[in-house]
Amino acid sequence: MFVFSNLIFGVARVLDAVLNLYFWIVIVSAVLSWVNPDPYNPIVRILRNLTEPVFYRVRKWIPFTYLGGLDLSPVVVLLAIQFINAVLVQSLYQFAVTMR
């Protein structure tokens, strides 16, 4: 029983770390979009490859994401990450603790 509890706890920790890392990637990508960086910079290309597919899906679901030229899709993604972190990850932590 402890092995399964530790497995669930480990999955929750990894998911928490991945969500936090992606949270910061989205923030950096949004800030970089304000300064219009060199599109051939490898870091900019990696950030865009990591975030644009998610932003594109959000823009498809919410057609009014442009408000006076302001793209709100990063805000929606950040809120979704926080929601998943608060609900799913915390539930996994609590489930792992109750199994001990």
Folded structure, characterized:
Keywords: Membrane, Transmembrane, Transmembrane helix. InterPro entries: CCB3/YggT. The chain crosses the membrane at residues 12-35, 72-93. There is one protein chain. With 100 residues, the protein is mainly alpha-helical. The chain is 80% helix and 4% strand. The chain has one domain. The protein is built from three helices and two strands. α1 (2-35) packs across α2.
In brief:
The protein is mainly alpha-helical and 100 residues long. It has one domain.
Highlighted features:
100 residues; mainly alpha; two-stranded antiparallel ribbon; 80% helix; elongated; transmembrane; CCB3/YggT; membrane; YggT family protein; transmembrane helix
What structural category arises from helix and sheet content?
A: mainly alpha
Mean pLDDT: 91
Binned strand content: under 5%
Which bin fits the share of residues in helices?
A: over 70%
Q: What would you report as the Rg, rounded to the nearest angstrom?
A: 17 Å
Which sheet architecture does the biggest sheet show? 2 strands, antiparallel
Order of SSEs: HHEEH
The outline comes out as: elongated
Main sheet strand line-up = 1-2
Low-confidence stretches are none
| Distance linking N and C termini | 7 Å
Number of strands: 2
Total helical elements? 3
The total domain count is 1
Protein name: YggT family protein
InterPro entries: CCB3/YggT
Pfam families: CCB3_YggT (PF02325)
Organism: Nitratidesulfovibrio vulgaris (strain DSM 19637 / Miyazaki F) (Desulfovibrio vulgaris)
